[in-house]
């Protein structure tokens, strides 16, 4: 048996605990959570700061790990996408090494599960042997060109088949974004997935995306013209892109909207009315890296929305660290409580990816992983994570 305590223990099934100890077996399964007075303190691993469940990274692009530092910050989404396309081709060995290193870094920080976007099969080998559980989202797009759909499907089937769904890993097909998926491809994705799958979609990242669907004007028209594509079938509706996505996605499936930089309170309400199993992922550092703006988190808090935390990729971030995402949100949106951030990072993420039977909370019988955050805990119980580090224990 192993025993752990800290100034505060966040179980996420009640108020944070003080003067308690978490007891696990050698495989990390929680056997009990007891008052520390019931144990010989010399038998307990004691930490300054806090202990939380393992982190869940609900949105990552592990396959882009080799592109760290290659794309400029502050360009906006459309130039960013163009730069990603330009820099994707690297020697295979370099790509695979970067993927393996990023996986290890996430594990060391305490990440136990990742929702990972895959356009290629490059990450399959690392995921199959990783200590992290991966939910692979095989991301499909056809630039809203229905004529391309049949040609597109085969290449994504190969990616899907290359990824394992054993040893805790899962996989499904997902649409890339409202502006890049045709009606026919949405239909294919709906038909191929199971009702208990989670699907994700990039959502409302930039003003240009909103403009495209509201008025059929703006930068995305030029973006498509650059590829020689037209958008003849797209009609302006006066509504943002999330309404287009909801029109074609399966309202019975757990759905994870990602980024949500431009999402309003009305959009959140509409999504919750559309699907009670709606989750949201924020990737704060990526939002700052690309667009230099953050979502309106208060709108999500007011709506009691199930927010989760992702890192995006090393192309659009400086690291793949859930704690660094939490610190960024706390720095620029200080009204978000630390316990709320921990809930987003652990419990909500595990629920969104369907791993809440083992991850997300500290409960007897679960094997959630334990993370030590060397945060400062004041006498009144206030937790300061601004200069903290996190590591798996």
Task: Indicate the percent of residues in helices.
Answer: 25-40%
User: What is the highest CATH level, the class of the largest domain?
Assistant: Alpha Beta
Shape: globular
User: How do the helices and strands follow one another from N- to C-terminus?
Assistant: EEEEEHHEHEHEHEHHHEHEHHEHHEEEE
Mean pLDDT: 95
Number of strands: 16
Biggest β-sheet description: 6 strands, mixed
Amount of beta strand: 15-25%
- How much is the radius of gyration in Å? 21 Å
Provide the number of structural domains.
2
CATH superfamily of the largest domain: Metal-dependent hydrolases
Helix/strand structural class: alpha/beta
Q: Major sheet: order of its strands?
A: 3-2-1-4-13-16
Which descriptors apply to this entry?
single chain, 393 residues, alpha/beta, Urease, subunit C, domain 1, TIM Barrel, 2 domains, six-stranded mixed β-sheet, four-stranded parallel β-sheet, 13 helices, 34% helix, 22% strand
Describe the protein's topology.
Layout: E1 2-9, E2 20-24, E3 30-35, E4 45-53, E5 55-60, H1 77-87, H2 92-109, E6 111-118, H3 124-129, E7 133-140, H4 149-162, E8 170-175, H5 183-192, E9 198-203, H6 207-215, H7 219-227, H8 241-248, E10 254-259, H9 265-274, E11 278-282, H10 284-290, H11 297-302, E12 306-309, H12 322-332, H13 338-352, E13 370-373, E14 376-377, E15 383-384, E16 390-392
Helix pairs in contact: 12-13
